[in-house]
Write a sequence for this structure.
């Protein structure tokens, strides 16, 4: 009895990356999205946000059809008021007008009463984007006749040709009640709007069907039980457990999966997604990893959350190893980098080739390129990390005899799971992996896509080395399309984020990563203050080195503060002359400018990190003014005083509230290697956990171990035992 | 020519606290709120959110009038399409139909074209809350005649009597252009909707006028220049500088201030607030500190941001003192608490009296009440803090000879500015203040309002003690209505938040304080694992102490894990019997339940913190299962193993990834005092900065001090100098 021909082609849009090519989109808004939480009307704000996004899709030239619920909710309120009024009239006049007012109101009556208002609302809303809408009501029976389906198809095509957005709803007034629909002629029953939307999508040959609901997608277990949102899904309902969390409930989800699966098998790409998510439609059409996407493609990566959890498990195994075993993993890695360098260069060449085609900036290309020299240095560095790692974990920080036979130790342990986000340099990967392994931490790595092939091979080598003594999942490469915004939501799974890259990367991570600590510094506005008692030669050399040794480094000088008494002296002249000799562009502060006979280029702001052969110069009346200037405009990174007066130096070093304060030394010394910390994990201008240059110690935390012999606190309360709290030697 | 009588009473609603009593509210939605960012229509989402809040106000029984902009924006799109069509017709037929299509379209024409659509949109939206609306268009001239004003007033009163929400707009079609309105007869000109709203508010005797715009209020300087939102404002425009940030611009703000000031002088409470803020109307009617509130009351407190900045300045002075000076402040405070106790008790009695009237829970009342005993203990504790403080700051953590004449030290310094949020116990205030002073930190205190009088006097005593050597602003009490949500926005001003109170307080702060670290623990789900090799007596005593010593403490046992081999043995029986003897309610885990002949009460979840004489019990096959259970269900606080097997204990202590891991000792030892750390700042289950019980050391960070003699990094690059990196003794 199969009267209807449906297209049976495979879905044209096979992956999330394809979704932006969609041309004909059906968006179904379920009642969970449209109805207010109090169930007494339509949720206007959400609707407005979705209309805005549908308008955006429409305006991008795509054809959109909206399948909507909500008429029942819209009408319920109207009919309830009406029923109350009728009832009160009946009471007044002592007679009974009808029969409907006593019990509950039929949803179909509500729908009829609400339909007009709902469409008017949509129409006003879409008008605001210059878009005309059209109302199309259909019933179950309409899909049983090829002729009616053809009529519907023609209508919708006509509307699309005129750039009108059709708004489709079931014609509830003449429909059977929702629970009474059977599968007719191979077409799923149109008893809910999911099926309705699926039918329409199949019959007009839409390429994308979006089912909007109020959960993030389809889960293999209820989210409250730690279920996993299914990213790639082969549609059979058996694999799915539906839990609490959705107002739709198990039944609603099953119908959604049935409808989605049916449309998918008929060649439509299908997405089930959360309409509560900000800019949901925009994101999913742009391929972001939200919602559950129906595809025949097999999953090729575990979710980032699962990866992070495996990192934690790995970290717990790693820290139980002997220090020599961790060191052995790292030295093995160092050996393998040398032994496998041909394969590494081959992968790297692929990245270089792609980058060259896309006109990547020369400097970036340089960072991306791996050379035998870089690999040798890297391998050597790894051996040093292995050597230094042996006394890292389980080191006593504090030991206390609390009472007789009750002792307490505070020892170093790994932080847990680190997320390191790095840009083009692939050599960062093995180095960071080695630091994580040395410190017993799990590691999630998110590299730049321009280094994709290089990162992949380097990571596979790290995995191989890890397997010597630990699970390879301990260091994991994030390869999904998950954006940083997704990763930073994993607050429970990630203990620390370390961005390794330019200021803009760090700033972006810091602003996104609410809730997970970020180790880094967004700005490096370092000052050199030349005191009145400065030695001329030291001033010249330190100022020059601070600015010119590596001008784009975060520890380079940005502002030079000069004591009033020096202006016009040989020291002042010599300092300026030396900077000019290196073509440093000098911006003059307002106070200094007043004193110059010929003014220079004025500073725009004292809070600029020039990152180039450029700096600001200002004069200060005394050291206090210099300190105030630094506190007002600085970034608490590194500040230098040049003076021969020990008391002044001491006061400056005590008063200036920055991570690094130097006397008669270049600001460029603010660096983990120069400080003797070994490999540098980062430089922190934050005040919590680590401050200034941070070595591998920054990847550690502590735990407290206590050993007793049946001790209870009650014994101390009763006086049976007493606290001694004696510090013990740390060996 | 003053034809119109306006009420001249003082505003009935004099403070933010009064606003919830408002009965007749005018809400004016400016075009900055209503118009989309692309200026091509109405911002539906914002409008919907505001309609929802106005509906809420209406439903609470208050009369609402909406004064709206937006018709021009609504009509612009319609007329632009129309104009394009006419133009294309003209081109087709070669004749000119009118004159308007060539240039820009008159805003009044746009308004006329948009008015109907805008009202229809409002009507559909309000209908969704069962609310009828009515359209009222007025012009400038309508306010010049007493008769028309009276007509308007009658109309609005009639509408209110029928519970209809009037929507008022200027009748632009017959109005003069906006720039041509003069002040007529003492009534401000109705040339913009701010003035229109103010006029309506005054003439119908509304008690609250809300002017919604797109900035947070009125500033004394542009926000971008660090301006301060004016909380209390005496309305003259001279005190105001208008800066960038608002699409309204300087002119719009001036008209707003003029209109607001005029209505204020006529007895209407006026608020200028940001319609972009979530639940803005709801918040301001409930007295939250958003927007600028017009009032004659003089400001009585500096803003919290200013307070925090003064704390930072104070902290910098405090850390420059000699350790003895900081100690002296604290001992002085200790003395003053004793000397002033009568005044303290008098203030405390006021709090107790108010609390008793409001039927405060007995336990809370107990915490609120100050006694001579509490003051004496507090004073004694402060002396100990003073004593311990002397070696806290400037302590060397690391010292390195970097090269010849180049040395490096890492020393302890204060964190900066702390925000401590505490509940009913006023004795927390001097204790926390002493810890902050001891560690050189600035301190913002936010206490519970039930302890208002006690906190005030205790804080004034702290200020007096501080003035001995430091600015009194170093420790500051937040007395404004600023809610936690406001405080946690001060990310630049506050370095660490420490909530001192119950779990719900800590959880709430942790979820709100995105970006500022919070030291604390939301959960304490501690486990005791009784191993197969446990000593019976130790097991009985430790389990009993861990659960019953103080059941509501965070370090009390919530789950008891018992090795399989012990089930049914005398040890097992003795442990259970002892718990039962204290009426501990026992919840049985599923595995144990299977083994019991008579099952008990099953556990709901292993992640419950009972905080009472109640716990869960489960059986585990071996120690690994116990460790897995703890990692799955625990909160990483404190876990105990009871065993006589040293190897098992060692493995448990190494494997369990919690802040505290104990062998044969009660979980109740997880406490700063019992650990010998002195006063406890908190217990952290976080892994960053501090972990486990935290003493005053947790309020410190470090800085790096380097002393050279003209050293540059170039000298090392050229080989003129070499790094030695030799560790130096710390003395």
């Amino acid at each position: 009895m199969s009267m209807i021909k449906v297209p049976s082609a495979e879905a044209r849009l096979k992956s999330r990356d394809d979704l932006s090519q969609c041309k004909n989109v059906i968006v179904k808004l379920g009642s969970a999205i449209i109805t207010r939480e109090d169930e007494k009307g339509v949720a206007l704000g959400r609707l407005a946000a979705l209309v805005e996004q549908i308008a955006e899709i429409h305006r991008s030239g795509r054809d959109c059809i909206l399948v909507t619920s909500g008429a029942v909710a819209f009408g319920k309120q109207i009919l309830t008021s009406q029923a109350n009024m009728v009832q009160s009239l009946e009471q007044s006049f002592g007679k009974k007008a009808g029969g409907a007012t006593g019990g509950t109101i039929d949803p179909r009556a509500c729908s009829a009463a609400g339909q007009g208002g709902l469409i008017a609302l949509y129409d006003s809303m879409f008008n605001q984007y210059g878009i005309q809408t059209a109302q199309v009501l259909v019933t179950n029976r309409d899909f049983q006749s090829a002729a009616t389906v053809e009529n519907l198809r023609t209508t919708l095509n006509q509307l699309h040709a005129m750039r009108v957005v059709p708004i489709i709803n079931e014609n509830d007034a003449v429909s059977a009640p929702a629970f009474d629909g059977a599968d007719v002629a191979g077409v799923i029953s149109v008893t809910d709007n999911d099926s309705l939307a699926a039918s329409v999508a199949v019959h007009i040959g839409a390429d994308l069907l979006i089912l909007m609901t109020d959960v993030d997608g389809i889960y293999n277990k209820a989210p409250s039980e730690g279920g996993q949102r299914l990213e790639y899904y082969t549609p059979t309902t058996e694999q799915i457990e539906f839990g609490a969390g959705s107002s739709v409930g198990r039944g609603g989800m099953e119908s959604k999966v049935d409808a989605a699966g049916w449309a998918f098998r008929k060649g439509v790409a299908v997405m089930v997604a959360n309409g509560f998510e900000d800019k949901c439609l925009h994101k999913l059409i742009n391929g972001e990893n939200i919602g559950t996407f129906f595809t025949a493609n097999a999953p090729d990566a575990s979710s980032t959350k699962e990866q992070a959890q495996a990192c934690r498990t790995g970290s717990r195994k790693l820290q139980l190893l002997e220090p020599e075993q961790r060191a052995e993993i790292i030295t093995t890695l160092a050996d393998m980098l040398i032994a496998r360098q041909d394969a590494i260069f081959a992968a790297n060449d692929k990245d270089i080739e792609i980058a060259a085609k896309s006109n990547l900036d020369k400097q970036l290309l340089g960072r991306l390129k791996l050379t035998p020299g870089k690999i040798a240095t890297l391998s050597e560095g790894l051996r040093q990390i292995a050597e230094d790692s042996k006394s890292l974990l389980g080191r006593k920080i504090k030991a206390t005899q609390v009472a007789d036979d009750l002792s307490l130790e505070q020892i170093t342990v790994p932080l847990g799971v680190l997320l390191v986000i790095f840009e083009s340099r692939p050599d960062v990967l093995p180095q960071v992996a080695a630091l994580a392994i040395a410190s017993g931490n799990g590691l999630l790595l998110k590299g730049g896509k321009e280094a994709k092939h290089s990162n992949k091979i380097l990571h596979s080598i790290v995995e191989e080395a890890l397997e010597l003594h630990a699970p390879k999942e301990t260091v994991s490469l994030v390869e999904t399309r998950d954006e940083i915004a997704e990763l930073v939501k994993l607050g429970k799974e990630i203990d620390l984020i370390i961005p390794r890259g330019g200021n803009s990367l760090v700033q972006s991570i810091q602003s996104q990563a609410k809730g997970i600590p970020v180790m880094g510094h967004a700005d490096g506005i370092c000052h050199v203050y030349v005191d009145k008692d400065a030695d001329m030669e030291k001033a010249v050399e330190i100022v020059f080195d601070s600015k010119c040794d590596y001008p784009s480094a975060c520890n380079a000088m940005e502002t030079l503060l000069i004591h009033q008494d020096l202006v016009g002296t040989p020291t002042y002249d010599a300092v300026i002359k030396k900077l000019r000799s290196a073509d440093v562009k000098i911006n003059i502060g307002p106070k200094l400018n007043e004193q110059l006979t010929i003014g220079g280029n004025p500073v725009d702001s004292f809070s600029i990190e020039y990152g180039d052969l450029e700096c600001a110069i200002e004069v200060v009346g005394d050291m206090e003014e210099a300190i105030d200037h630094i506190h007002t405009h600085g970034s608490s990174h590194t500040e230098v005083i040049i003076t021969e007066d020990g008391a002044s130096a001491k006061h400056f070093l005590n008063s200036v509230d920055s991570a690094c304060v130097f006397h008669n030394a270049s600001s460029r010394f603010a660096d983990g290697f120069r400080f003797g910390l070994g490999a540098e994990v980062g430089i922190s201008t934050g005040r919590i956990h680590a401050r200034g240059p941070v070595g591998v110690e920054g990847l550690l935390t502590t735990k407290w171990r206590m050993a007793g012999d049946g001790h209870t606190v009650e014994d101390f309360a009763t006086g049976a035992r007493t606290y001694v709290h004696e510090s013990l030697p740390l060996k």
